[in-house]
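Let us work through a complete example step by step.
Step 1: write down the sequence.
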Amino acid sequence: MPTFHEEQAPGYSGLANRRSNETMDSSSIGELSSPEPAAPELAVWVWDEETQTSVPASHAAYLRSQMAQSPSPALPEESPPQYARARIPTLPVRYTFCQLSFNTMLLIPPAESQDTRPQYHISVNMNCFVPTSFITTIHRGAIAYGRAVAEFEMGISVEKGRVRFGRYENDISAILDKADKNINHTKWTWRPPKVRHRLTWDCRSVPFTCHSIGPSPVLLATFTPRKLNRAIKRPSDPPVLEVSPEGQLHFDHLLLALLIVERKRLTPGKSMFFDRMID
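Step 2: predict the structure and record it as tokens.
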């Protein structure tokens, strides 16, 4: 800003009359012009951590002092209400395998069920390094981002089929075996590390039955596979898995075992595979 002298500068009219008599120094000439208006001060805004807002710098200290003086809001004496967890059904529940896309299906309960949300999301993807091997992944809930339950890989590969659930991973043959060589109509035994989840799937007649292993086997579930009837020009009924109240406690394992059994049961053997390729 320009600096002004203490004495008052003469006006324009006085300067014209005394132009020949008075001598003015060069510093006085600049003082005859009107002073430039002062530039407005820019407000400086800062982020206040306590109020979590942007405020002028001049207000930040004031707001902090006000918040320090104001009492903290009282906390409620009781906890907020919580959603009630879905209880274990007291009757068998019929779940349907519903195709969602070309490689995904959902296991959904009936509309009249106590909990109508999809129970499992099941997807199958190709192993890009071994295009003849496929990975099945099981998640809880309706989407692929739910809690991971298990996954297994099977197919035509030099590697043996593998299964993984939790921290356990092993060859499928180490925990699943069949009673005889007839792969389509036999009894399968599922032997995971935890003894209480060991069970059997009996595929010798439809519906397939799943029982616990022990002195007194308990019926855990039944499975009715899709029946392909080309003579009837209507969509075939979807596969149905009926789970008993006792089976709800073993749901993850009986479903995982069933998916592996069905993959094995419906995959043609070596001789049949090459015959089908020729056809």
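Step 3: interpret the result. Residues 93-268 form one domain.
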